[in-house]
Amino acid sequence: MFNYYIIEKKSSLSLTLKSDTLLVVLEGEIVLNSLDCFNKLLGSETILCIPLSSDLLLNSENRAKVLIISFNIEEHFSKSYTDFLLSESVVNNLGVAIIIEPIKRIFNTICYYLNDGVDMSDLSKALLNELFIILILYYDNQDIRCLFYPILGSDTSFRQLVLEHCLKVNRLEDLATLARYSKSGFIKKFYRCFGQSPYKWILQYKAKRILLDICYSDNSFNEISDSYGISNYSYFYIFCKKHYGAGPRVIRKKGLKKINLDKMFKSII
Protein backbone atom coordinates (compact mmCIF):
# COMPACT_ATOMS: atom_id res chain seq x y z
CA MET A 1 0.00 0.00 0.00
CA PHE A 2 2.80 2.44 0.90
CA ASN A 3 6.26 2.94 -0.58
CA TYR A 4 8.67 5.76 0.20
CA TYR A 5 11.46 6.82 -2.15
CA ILE A 6 14.28 9.35 -2.12
CA ILE A 7 15.35 10.41 -5.61
CA GLU A 8 18.85 11.78 -5.44
CA LYS A 9 20.07 14.82 -7.38
CA LYS A 10 19.99 14.31 -11.17
CA SER A 11 18.60 10.79 -10.72
CA SER A 12 15.49 8.98 -11.89
CA LEU A 13 13.06 6.39 -10.59
CA SER A 14 11.10 3.99 -12.79
CA LEU A 15 7.82 2.52 -11.50
CA THR A 16 5.13 0.21 -12.86
CA LEU A 17 1.78 0.71 -11.14
CA LYS A 18 -0.43 -2.34 -10.71
CA SER A 19 -3.22 -0.48 -8.93
CA ASP A 20 -4.67 3.01 -8.68
CA THR A 21 -2.11 5.24 -7.00
CA LEU A 22 -1.59 8.54 -5.24
CA LEU A 23 1.86 9.95 -5.97
CA VAL A 24 2.81 12.39 -3.22
CA VAL A 25 5.74 14.78 -3.64
CA LEU A 26 6.83 15.52 -0.09
CA GLU A 27 9.99 17.49 -0.83
CA GLY A 28 11.70 18.88 -3.91
CA GLU A 29 10.42 18.79 -7.47
CA ILE A 30 10.07 15.92 -9.92
CA VAL A 31 9.44 15.71 -13.64
CA LEU A 32 6.97 12.97 -14.50
CA ASN A 33 6.88 11.07 -17.78
CA SER A 34 4.19 8.50 -18.46
CA LEU A 35 1.87 7.42 -21.24
CA ASP A 36 -0.57 10.16 -20.23
CA CYS A 37 1.82 13.07 -19.84
CA PHE A 38 5.31 14.17 -20.77
CA ASN A 39 7.64 16.33 -18.71
CA LYS A 40 4.95 17.18 -16.16
CA LEU A 41 6.52 19.22 -13.37
CA LEU A 42 5.25 18.41 -9.88
CA GLY A 43 6.30 20.71 -7.09
CA SER A 44 6.72 20.05 -3.41
CA GLU A 45 3.59 19.12 -1.41
CA THR A 46 1.62 18.00 -4.45
CA ILE A 47 -0.65 14.96 -4.78
CA LEU A 48 -1.21 13.32 -8.17
CA CYS A 49 -3.81 10.60 -8.77
CA ILE A 50 -2.75 8.01 -11.36
CA PRO A 51 -4.88 5.15 -12.77
CA LEU A 52 -3.67 1.57 -12.67
CA SER A 53 -1.43 -0.01 -15.31
CA SER A 54 0.74 3.05 -15.75
CA ASP A 55 4.49 3.07 -16.31
CA LEU A 56 6.15 6.09 -14.73
CA LEU A 57 9.56 7.68 -14.95
CA LEU A 58 10.33 10.27 -12.29
CA ASN A 59 13.31 12.58 -12.78
CA SER A 60 14.72 15.01 -10.25
CA GLU A 61 17.27 17.74 -10.82
CA ASN A 62 17.66 18.07 -7.06
CA ARG A 63 16.95 15.69 -4.21
CA ALA A 64 13.26 14.78 -3.90
CA LYS A 65 11.15 12.63 -1.60
CA VAL A 66 8.03 10.87 -2.85
CA LEU A 67 5.42 8.64 -1.28
CA ILE A 68 3.51 6.09 -3.37
CA ILE A 69 0.10 5.04 -2.05
CA SER A 70 -1.74 2.16 -3.74
CA PHE A 71 -5.48 1.76 -3.17
CA ASN A 72 -8.80 0.47 -4.48
CA ILE A 73 -11.21 3.38 -4.82
CA GLU A 74 -14.26 1.13 -4.32
CA GLU A 75 -13.13 0.38 -0.77
CA HIS A 76 -13.30 4.06 0.18
CA PHE A 77 -15.99 5.66 -1.98
CA SER A 78 -19.51 4.25 -1.96
CA LYS A 79 -21.37 4.03 -5.26
CA SER A 80 -23.73 6.82 -4.17
CA TYR A 81 -20.79 9.09 -3.29
CA THR A 82 -19.10 8.29 -6.60
CA ASP A 83 -22.31 9.04 -8.47
CA PHE A 84 -22.58 12.33 -6.58
CA LEU A 85 -19.01 13.30 -7.51
CA LEU A 86 -19.64 12.49 -11.16
CA SER A 87 -22.96 14.38 -11.22
CA GLU A 88 -21.13 17.67 -11.75
CA SER A 89 -18.47 18.60 -14.28
CA VAL A 90 -14.83 19.12 -13.39
CA VAL A 91 -13.08 22.32 -14.34
CA ASN A 92 -9.30 21.89 -14.37
CA ASN A 93 -6.25 20.44 -12.63
CA LEU A 94 -7.53 16.89 -13.16
CA GLY A 95 -5.81 14.43 -10.87
CA VAL A 96 -3.91 17.06 -8.86
CA ALA A 97 -4.29 18.49 -5.37
CA ILE A 98 -2.14 20.50 -2.97
CA ILE A 99 -1.26 18.93 0.38
CA ILE A 100 -2.95 20.63 3.34
CA GLU A 101 -1.81 20.35 6.96
CA PRO A 102 -4.09 17.52 8.23
CA ILE A 103 -3.13 15.34 5.24
CA LYS A 104 0.53 16.25 5.64
CA ARG A 105 0.48 14.89 9.20
CA ILE A 106 -0.75 11.51 7.95
CA PHE A 107 1.87 11.40 5.19
CA ASN A 108 4.59 12.22 7.71
CA THR A 109 3.34 9.47 10.03
CA ILE A 110 3.39 6.92 7.21
CA CYS A 111 6.93 7.93 6.20
CA TYR A 112 8.08 7.78 9.83
CA TYR A 113 6.85 4.20 10.17
CA LEU A 114 8.38 3.18 6.84
CA ASN A 115 11.76 4.74 7.69
CA ASP A 116 11.71 3.12 11.12
CA GLY A 117 11.17 -0.33 9.64
CA VAL A 118 7.78 -0.84 11.29
CA ASP A 119 5.80 -3.87 10.10
CA MET A 120 2.95 -2.17 8.22
CA SER A 121 0.83 -5.28 7.63
CA ASP A 122 -1.58 -4.39 10.45
CA LEU A 123 -1.27 -0.59 10.17
CA SER A 124 -1.66 -0.07 6.42
CA LYS A 125 -5.42 -0.55 6.15
CA ALA A 126 -6.13 1.66 9.18
CA LEU A 127 -3.85 4.43 7.89
CA LEU A 128 -5.37 4.24 4.42
CA ASN A 129 -8.89 4.44 5.83
CA GLU A 130 -7.89 7.43 7.97
CA LEU A 131 -6.31 9.11 4.94
CA PHE A 132 -9.49 8.88 2.88
CA ILE A 133 -11.66 10.04 5.78
CA ILE A 134 -9.45 13.11 6.24
CA LEU A 135 -9.43 13.77 2.49
CA ILE A 136 -13.24 13.84 2.43
CA LEU A 137 -13.47 15.92 5.61
CA TYR A 138 -10.92 18.60 4.73
CA TYR A 139 -11.18 18.94 0.93
CA ASP A 140 -14.32 20.28 -0.69
CA ASN A 141 -16.26 18.16 -3.17
CA GLN A 142 -14.81 19.90 -6.21
CA ASP A 143 -11.25 19.22 -5.03
CA ILE A 144 -12.08 15.54 -4.43
CA ARG A 145 -13.83 15.38 -7.80
CA CYS A 146 -10.81 16.82 -9.61
CA LEU A 147 -8.24 14.74 -7.73
CA PHE A 148 -9.90 11.37 -8.34
CA TYR A 149 -11.47 12.06 -11.72
CA PRO A 150 -8.77 10.09 -13.64
CA ILE A 151 -10.12 7.01 -11.82
CA LEU A 152 -13.79 7.87 -11.27
CA GLY A 153 -14.26 9.12 -14.83
CA SER A 154 -13.28 5.81 -16.41
CA ASP A 155 -14.15 2.14 -16.15
CA THR A 156 -10.95 0.77 -14.65
CA SER A 157 -11.51 -2.89 -15.61
CA PHE A 158 -12.26 -1.91 -19.21
CA ARG A 159 -9.25 0.43 -19.24
CA GLN A 160 -7.01 -2.33 -17.90
CA LEU A 161 -8.15 -4.75 -20.60
CA VAL A 162 -7.50 -2.19 -23.33
CA LEU A 163 -4.05 -1.30 -22.00
CA GLU A 164 -3.10 -4.96 -21.72
CA HIS A 165 -4.28 -6.12 -25.14
CA CYS A 166 -4.58 -3.18 -27.56
CA LEU A 167 -1.05 -3.60 -28.95
CA LYS A 168 -1.26 -7.40 -29.07
CA VAL A 169 -4.19 -7.71 -31.49
CA ASN A 170 -4.23 -6.81 -35.17
CA ARG A 171 -7.90 -5.90 -35.53
CA LEU A 172 -10.33 -3.84 -33.51
CA GLU A 173 -12.83 -6.68 -33.79
CA ASP A 174 -10.44 -8.94 -31.85
CA LEU A 175 -10.15 -6.38 -29.05
CA ALA A 176 -13.94 -6.01 -28.96
CA THR A 177 -14.30 -9.80 -28.68
CA LEU A 178 -11.88 -9.92 -25.75
CA ALA A 179 -13.98 -7.24 -24.02
CA ARG A 180 -17.18 -9.16 -24.89
CA TYR A 181 -18.66 -6.38 -26.99
CA SER A 182 -19.84 -6.09 -30.54
CA LYS A 183 -17.62 -3.83 -32.61
CA SER A 184 -20.13 -0.96 -32.50
CA GLY A 185 -20.76 -1.44 -28.77
CA PHE A 186 -17.03 -1.52 -28.12
CA ILE A 187 -16.47 1.75 -29.99
CA LYS A 188 -19.20 3.46 -27.93
CA LYS A 189 -17.82 2.07 -24.65
CA PHE A 190 -14.28 3.03 -25.65
CA TYR A 191 -15.28 6.60 -26.42
CA ARG A 192 -17.04 6.95 -23.04
CA CYS A 193 -13.97 5.62 -21.22
CA PHE A 194 -11.14 7.30 -23.14
CA GLY A 195 -12.83 10.29 -24.79
CA GLN A 196 -11.54 9.37 -28.26
CA SER A 197 -12.18 6.84 -30.99
CA PRO A 198 -10.24 3.58 -30.49
CA TYR A 199 -8.33 4.01 -33.75
CA LYS A 200 -7.03 7.44 -32.76
CA TRP A 201 -6.34 6.58 -29.12
CA ILE A 202 -4.52 3.31 -29.84
CA LEU A 203 -2.31 5.00 -32.43
CA GLN A 204 -1.51 7.75 -29.92
CA TYR A 205 -0.85 5.16 -27.19
CA LYS A 206 1.47 3.20 -29.47
CA ALA A 207 3.33 6.36 -30.48
CA LYS A 208 3.82 7.38 -26.85
CA ARG A 209 5.06 3.92 -25.87
CA ILE A 210 7.54 3.92 -28.73
CA LEU A 211 8.73 7.43 -27.85
CA LEU A 212 9.39 6.48 -24.23
CA ASP A 213 11.23 3.33 -25.33
CA ILE A 214 13.42 5.34 -27.70
CA CYS A 215 14.29 7.91 -25.03
CA TYR A 216 14.62 5.76 -21.93
CA SER A 217 15.27 2.12 -22.83
CA ASP A 218 18.58 0.57 -23.85
CA ASN A 219 16.92 -1.51 -26.56
CA SER A 220 18.14 -1.18 -30.11
CA PHE A 221 15.85 0.43 -32.67
CA ASN A 222 15.32 -2.95 -34.34
CA GLU A 223 14.28 -4.45 -31.00
CA ILE A 224 11.84 -1.59 -30.38
CA SER A 225 10.34 -1.76 -33.87
CA ASP A 226 9.96 -5.57 -33.64
CA SER A 227 8.19 -5.32 -30.29
CA TYR A 228 5.54 -3.05 -31.84
CA GLY A 229 5.07 -5.09 -35.00
CA ILE A 230 6.94 -2.71 -37.32
CA SER A 231 8.67 -5.01 -39.77
CA ASN A 232 11.94 -3.20 -40.48
CA TYR A 233 13.98 -0.11 -39.66
CA SER A 234 12.89 1.76 -42.80
CA TYR A 235 9.23 1.59 -41.76
CA PHE A 236 10.23 2.43 -38.19
CA TYR A 237 12.08 5.53 -39.37
CA ILE A 238 9.05 6.58 -41.45
CA PHE A 239 6.77 6.06 -38.43
CA CYS A 240 9.02 8.23 -36.23
CA LYS A 241 9.40 10.90 -38.86
CA LYS A 242 5.64 11.06 -39.41
CA HIS A 243 4.60 11.19 -35.76
CA TYR A 244 7.54 12.90 -34.05
CA GLY A 245 9.06 14.96 -36.84
CA ALA A 246 12.48 13.31 -36.43
CA GLY A 247 14.14 9.93 -36.85
CA PRO A 248 14.79 7.64 -33.87
CA ARG A 249 18.51 8.44 -33.64
CA VAL A 250 17.83 12.18 -33.40
CA ILE A 251 15.11 11.63 -30.79
CA ARG A 252 17.33 9.40 -28.64
CA LYS A 253 20.19 11.87 -28.84
CA LYS A 254 18.04 14.88 -27.85
CA GLY A 255 15.86 13.18 -25.25
CA LEU A 256 12.40 14.29 -24.22
CA LYS A 257 13.44 17.52 -22.54
CA LYS A 258 14.65 19.09 -25.77
CA ILE A 259 11.78 17.94 -27.96
CA ASN A 260 8.70 20.03 -28.70
CA LEU A 261 6.14 17.41 -27.74
CA ASP A 262 3.09 19.49 -28.69
CA LYS A 263 4.44 19.88 -32.21
CA MET A 264 5.58 16.29 -32.28
CA PHE A 265 2.13 14.89 -31.59
CA LYS A 266 0.13 17.31 -33.69
CA SER A 267 -0.54 14.61 -36.30
CA ILE A 268 -2.10 12.14 -33.86
CA ILE A 269 -3.71 14.16 -31.07
Question: How would you explain this protein's 3D organization?
Answer:
The chain has 269 residues and is of the alpha+beta class. The protein has two domains: 2-152, Jelly Rolls (Sandwich), CATH 2.60.120.10; 156-264, Orthogonal Bundle (Arc Repressor Mutant, subunit A), CATH 1.10.10.60. It has twelve helices and nine strands. The strands form two sheets. The chain has a five-stranded antiparallel sheet with strand order 1-8-3-6-9. It has a four-stranded antiparallel sheet with strand order 2-7-4-5, with no helix packed on it. It is globular. Mean pLDDT is 86; it is low at 262-269.
How would you summarize what this structure contains?
Helix content is 48%, strand content 19%. The chain is of the alpha+beta class and 269 residues long.
Could you tell me the CATH topology label of the largest domain: Jelly Rolls
Mean model confidence by pLDDT = 86
Strand content: 15-25%
Radius of gyration: 20 Å
The H/E string reads: EEEEEEEEHEHHHHHHHHHHH
**What's the total helix number?**
12
- Largest sheet, strands/sense/barrel: 5 strands, antiparallel
Estimate percent helicity.
40-55%
Rounded to the nearest angstrom, the distance between the terminal CA atoms is: 34 Å
What is the name of the CATH superfamily of the largest domain? Jelly Rolls
